[in-house]
Design a protein that fits this description.
D-Maltodextrin-Binding Protein, domain 2; 5-stranded mixed β-sheet; alpha+beta; Dipeptide-binding Protein, domain 3; globular
Length: about 575
Amino acid sequence: MKRNIKRILLSLLIIGTFMLGSFTLAFAAEEPRYGGSLKVLNLIPYLNPIAWDNYDWNWKHAHDTGFYLEHLLAGDLQKGPKGTNEYAFQSSAYIPPHIVRGELVESWEVQKDPLALVFHLRKGIYWQEKPGVMKAREFVANDVVYSMTRLAGSPKAIPLYLEFIDRWEAKDKYTAVAYLKEWCGNWQYRFGWGYYDAIQPPEMEKAGGRDWKNACGTGPYMITDYKSGHNQTYTKNPNYWDKTVIDGKQYQLPFTDNVKYLIIKDESTRLAALRTGKADMMMYVNWKYVKMLKKTCPDLKWRRYMNPVGSCLALRMDQKPFDDIRIRRALNLAINQQEIIDAFYGGNAYIIGYPFPKVWSELHTPVDKLPESARELFTYNPEKAKKLLAEAGYPNGFTFKMQVSNSTQEGLDLAALIVAYLAKVGVKLELEVMDYPSYLSKMTSKNHGPAYYLSSDYGNPFAIIRKNFLPKQTWNPYMFNDDYVTNTWKKAISDPNLSEEELKETFKKLNVYIIDQAPAIWTPVAYRYCAWWPWVKNYHGELRVGAYRPGPIFARIWIDQELKKKMGFK
C-alpha cells in the first residue's frame, strides 16, 4: 500500500507540473545522471561465462567481455532508437554495413594492390591498469597484430573462418593492415564486430588469459568481481575514451558506477527479481508472462522483439521421399501456420522466420510479397497436400522419423503439433526425443533423418546461407546441395566489386529461392519481450551492438536514482 501511495503521489506531481506549464521540472529526470548501479537479467541469465579468453573461440565470449574488451568495429547506436532509428539492434549477429562505425579504429579502407584492409586506429585510447597484469599504456597497432594473429593461430579456430587473411602487419604506430589471400565480403562479421575478435593485450595472456581476474581491456567498464551462479560485476573505467551525444549535447561514458549481470537459473526467481526491482531490466521475458507482469507491475516499460533463433523441421533432400519437392510441399500445406500462431503462441509469433528473419528488414521478404509458389507454402490446404502425395506415389501417406532435442519444452510441444497435423493427411511422423549432445551428434555426423528439428541462430546473411544451405557444412541437416545457391553465395563473398545494394538484392533472391525449394516444414518464429523499470533511462530495447555483445548499450544507460526511490524501490 505504501508503495502504491508513492506511485500515485509521483503521478500527481508530474501531472501538476505539466498543468503549471513548468516543462523544465517535468523533464528534469531526462537529463543524464551519473552514478548508481545497473542490475541486468541478460539474454541468457542462466549461463555462467564460458570463456574469458577469445583464444578459446567461444560464442558467448563477447557477451561477457564486451564491457571491457573492444573491437575494431561496432554498431553505431546513434543510428538506433536513440538517434536516427535506422536500425533496432535486435539481431544476434547482423549489423548492416551502413550501420557500422569504427570503435577502436577511426577509419578503414580497402587497398587493392596488394589486396588488403587498412585500419587507422583512434589515438589516445589506453589499456586499463590492472595490478599484477599491466600498467595503463596506449593502445597501438602492434596490439591489433598480436591479438588477431594469436586468434587465427588457436587450435580451436573455426576452419575457413579467418583463412582468407594472409597476415597482419603494423605499418606504423596507429595503422594496422590485414593482407588478404582473397576477398571476403563478410570480413566485418569475421573479425570486425564478430563473436571472437575482441582485441586483447599481450599482458593478459602472460598473466593467464583464462582467469577473469587477469582480464582487462580498453572499454567503458572493468571486470572487478565474478561469483559463479550469482553475478558478474563491471565497474566504471574512469579513463574511458568514448562519449555519446544526447539531444545535441556530448557526454562522457559510461554513466553508471557499475553494471551487474545477475545469474539466475530459475525462471520464476528471475521474474520475482524483476517484479521487486532487484533487477532493473530483464532482456528476455517469455510472452506467457507478459500479461501477468503488465497487471502486477504496470510501470514497467516494454519492447517486443523476434526470437534470434529460428527453427524448422529439416527434411533430408538426399533421401526418399524428400528428394521429391512435391512431398516437401505437401507437408508444408498440411500445416496450419496461422492456427499455430494464434493457439500455440497466443498471437505472439510471425508466420515466416527462416532463413532470413523479419528484423533483417532490408533482406526479408514477407509472405504477401513472395512469388505465388513460395507464398502457397504458408497456406493451409490439406486437400492439395493429399493430392500432391498421391501424385508422388504415396496416396496412403508414409511414415518417417524425426530427431528432436528434449532441451526445450516449446520445441517438443511444437513437434507434437506437427505430428497431429500430418496425421490428418495420412502421414505418420514418429518423434525420436534425445538429449541435446546425442541429438546434435546425429546432425554433425550426418546420421540424422530423414527429418531433423533444427534450431539455429540466424547469424548474418552470409553465415546462414553458408552453414545451412551449402554442401558439406555441419549445420546443413537438409543435405541441401544446389548449384545456383552455392555459386551465387561464392560470388557474393569473393567479389570485391559488389556494392552493398547489389549484395542486398543477391541475398533477397537467395532467401526467396530457398524458401520455394521447401527443404523444411517451415514454422512460425516467436516473439520475445524485454522489460525495464522507468528509472532506467536512455534505453529503448536494444539487445546487441555486435555479435551477441550488449556492453556498449549498457554504457549509455543512466539510472534516475531519485525516481527509483520515489517509486518505493531501493
